[in-house]
Design a protein that fits this description.
There is one protein chain. The protein has about 375 residues and is α/β, with parallel strands linked by helices. The protein has 11 helices and 15 strands. α4 packs across α5. The longest helix has 17 residues. Bound molecules: NADP nicotinamide-adenine-dinucleotide phosphate (NAP). NADP nicotinamide-adenine-dinucleotide phosphate (NAP) binds next to α2, α4 and α5.
Amino acid sequence: MKRMYITGPMTHLAMLFSICLFSISVASGAEPDSMRQWQLAKAESGTGYTTVLKTVPVPAPAVNEVLVRMRAVSLNRKDIYAQDRSMETGQATPGLSISDGAGDVIAIGANVTRFKVGDRVVGAFDSVWIDGASTGYRSRQGLLSEYVVMTEDTVLPIPAYLNYEEAATLPCAAVTAWNTLFKAAKLQKDEYVLLQGTGGVSIFGLQLAAAAGARPIITSSSDAKLEQAMALGAFGTVNYRTYPDWDINVRKLTNDVGVMHVLEVGGQDTFPKAVASLAKGGHIGSIGGLGEGGFVREAPEDLLKPYNATWSYIYVGSRTDFENLNAFMTEHQIHPVIDRVFPYAETPAAYDYMKSGSFFGKIVIAIDK
Ligand SMILES: NC(=O)c1ccc[n+]([C@@H]2O[C@H](COP(=O)([O-])OP(=O)(O)OC[C@H]3O[C@@H](n4cnc5c(N)ncnc54)[C@H](OP(=O)(O)O)[C@@H]3O)[C@@H](O)[C@H]2O)c1
């Protein structure tokens, strides 16, 4: 059965539009009433959550929403935290999963003006934040689904040179890296930038810094991954397993000047060495808590003072920040690094792969494969 998705008061214009939509729906094939959606449910073992495939109704967009047929989503570390509940996630209860994804607009609410049926779109990370300063953590949830609704204000067009899978990697990791380098700080050409590990945020940080003409130095537990990082434009690399005092190696790579910027994803465990890698007047953006000690949420002034360093706690970014990232990515024709694309049916394997830590860059699930 075909569905028609015009909501709200039916003005003449809206009625006319609904007829157009209806005919588009006919032309592009009817959308089903139900869809397959992966949800997080209590694991049988009793600890943590597991992904379960459910059949649920296809939602209808409200007046200010677009209905999107999802093409691809990408995993972030927080999706693993949400699954094992071993770390703070900011989310009350699991259920729907995955904040980052891209697809096609297939229907619009009556008041939608920014998009039309057929547009290729990607959702911003935050479900409310458009511009200015953040007023709280409201990560979008529930894109691991064949269809989703999103408010038009928090959706962006996909840059023309990127495909759906590439676009799906941007909302959290890339926006966070961009904000740390260009908004919380003002990255300049030739400056040294420190990136920790070869996960999503760090590889975007490497690509963005290299494109800006800076000198990215990256750490990893794997020499093979460090070779990949060199091919992406790293200025220098350090294996943090081989060299537990990796800050010494980082400083050597800068001729003991130190790095001007750190994208700090390790958290409490790596923070002291990140500070020890700094140049005078450098900036640390605290982003993550990959180590067992978890996140750094307050400025450790005693550590920062000897370096006259500045510190920011980073929370992803607004839609405007995402637009600025897209402009930069487009100018430099940067393609996200996707390690592997999993078909929708193999979603649990994608989570397992992320947990394995053996990936480089981003992991994607193709909803339409
Ligand atoms: N504040 C925010 O707005 C924000 C936004 C995005 C992400 N985050 C947080 O930032 C962190 C990174 O996120 P992500 O999605 O980029 O993670 P990810 O893709 O899962 O990165 C995992 C990689 O990080 C490296 N790694 C793991 N433990 C490490 C450690 N103790 N020290 C240094 N490197 C380590 C490893 O790289 P190798 O295999 O190369 O060793 C690992 O493969 C997470 O804690 C995430 O929750 C925060």
